[in-house]
Structures are given as C-alpha cells and as structure tokens.
Amino acid sequence: MPFADITGHEQSISLLQASLRNGRLAHAYLFYGEARVGKLMTAVRLAQTLNCEQSSQTEAQDSCGHCRSCLQIAARTHPDYFVIEPDPKAATPQIKIEQVREIEQQFVYRPLVGERKICLIDDADRLTIGAANALLKTLEEPPGHSLFILITSRLHALPITIRSRCQALRFTTPARTQVEAALILKRELSPADARFLAVFADGRIGEALTANLADVRARQQECLTLVKPDSLRSSTTILSASENLAKTDRGEETLVWLTRWIRDLVIVIVDGDQDQILHYDQLADLRRYAQRADIDALLTLLNDIERTEQQSTRHLNVQMTLETTFLRLRDALGLVPAGASA
Ligand SMILES: [Zn+2]
Predict the structure, then answer these.
(1) Could you tell me the distance, in angstroms and rounded to a whole number, from the CA of residue 72 to the centre of ligand 1?
(2) d(CA 50, ligand 1 centre) in Å
(3) What are phi and psi of 54, to 5 degrees?
C-alpha cells in the first residue's frame, strides 16, 4: 500500500519522501503522538518504500504494497526488517535488553537484499533501562546501512538521551472529516455511521478503522435506552440496570457512554460546537431533554464522575457510582420518579 493510503500526516510523509529523494534519510527516527493515529502504519510504509521491487514506485518515493518485498515487510518476514515490541501478554509489557542485543548482532552485517537494515521499535517507551542503554550505544554510532524507527505515544517516558539521537516527527490526530472520509472509502460506511465512529474514536484512525460498528452501536443503544425518561423515572430499572452492568464488567464502559451523552446534552444546551456531538443522530431528542435540563447540575455531575474515575480507578464501586449517576441525572433532567407525587 502506498503512503496515500494513510489518513493525515501529510507533513511527516512529505518530509520523509523528500529525505528519500535526496538521499538524506536519517539513521534514526522517532515517531511520536497519540496512540493509534498512524505512526506504525507510516513506519511500515517507509520500510516498504525502501525495499519495494517496483522501481517506478521507488522513484516516486512510495511503495506498491503487493510485490514480494512489500508483502514480506507487512508479514514481518523480510530478511532486512526487524520489529521489536513489548510482549503484549506480559503483566508489565517491557522491551528487554536481550531483544536489543539480538538486533545489535544482526546489524553488524550488511543488508541481504536492500540498502538498509531496518529496525522498528514499537512502544519504545517500554524499553527497560538496560535495553535503553544498549540501544543508545547503537544509536550513537549507527552502522551506515541501518535505519531505526522508534514509535511512542508516551514521549515523556522515553529517556532524553534516546530522544536526542533521533530525528523526531510528531504525529497529530487527523481531522474528524479526514477520518470520516477514510471510513466511507475503506469501510464503505454510510456518512452517518462514518461520522459516528470518527467522533467515537476521537480522531484515532486506527481505532475507527478496526472498531466493530455493530458492537459500538449496540453500546450506544443500551446507553440511550437507559437515559429514556421511562427508565430514569423507575428506581427499580435504575437499581437493577446498575447491578447487572457492574456484574457483567461493563459498568465502567457504561459510565463512559453516560458521560459522553451528558456532554452532548451540555453542548446542545449551550449551543456549542455540534461537530463534537457523538449522538448526532439523536439531536432532536437531545433538544427535547435540553428544554427541561438543569445545566449546573449536569456540569457538576460531569465533574464528579471525572473525579471519581481519577481517584479510584482500581477500587471504584461501579454499581454505586452508576446508581448515583442515574439518580442525579434524573434530577438534573427534571424527571419525577414514578410513584412519587409531583
Ligand atoms: Zn512493493
């Protein structure tokens, strides 16, 4: 696949292509920015471009995506291409010194087919101190035929010594409209679904492209059912829903959905930026709620949910938090409990 397949990051890509064209590619790059915005994909495309067997593509400083070399890089079987990453199954995922040593030994030799040996280090902030020191030695005197691409979404967690040895490229979150366009093109989604997923993923294209739309829509529907006036008026519904959600481990997720729904409602009340509204297809309903809602109560509720989540992610009493949130939401929306005399 060519670079054009990547959503956003035009500046970083054109800088890389200009460097390729002028033979000025650095020996070490650091791609940093939020998770799942396209850093890894860009790194893979760069590796493919350096080795692509379609020479016409190579002149354009791009890759074809389907020659043997491009496929081998995608499958991580190319003889000059190495990927280091933390073991995702480990309790504390780390990149260990042995992994870096293995690369060092490989990089003593010249590349087997291409001009460069390429080492991609994903989640580079997970290097142990020993591994970082070992890598630093290599980065200080990189073999002429080497290319290191370090990737991180936690720049501050990477030793400054490593950072200073790399040419850093910042990857920003693509615009929502870009993500939407990519979803319509690549996933053939309807404009409404594309908009919904783009806002849901907060511009994280990787997330938007892989999220299971049916699942996300089901969660949305569940949240919308829970905030219906009939559900909120019934204390029995509130209590049993909170208990069930806490039991099935989906409580915290529901809390996130509730938070986003309340935020949408606040945006509607203050006539804010509709681009940020997740439940855009519920706009008519949101406007109806807005007429009777107490904005102060909603804002306080949002703050309190946020504070609860920050304070005690580990020992959060999900069931109780959900119950309280529903009850306070009921009040804030001006709904009278069923059975109570108005
Ligand atoms: Zn190719």
Answers:
(1) 10
(2) 9
(3) -85, 100
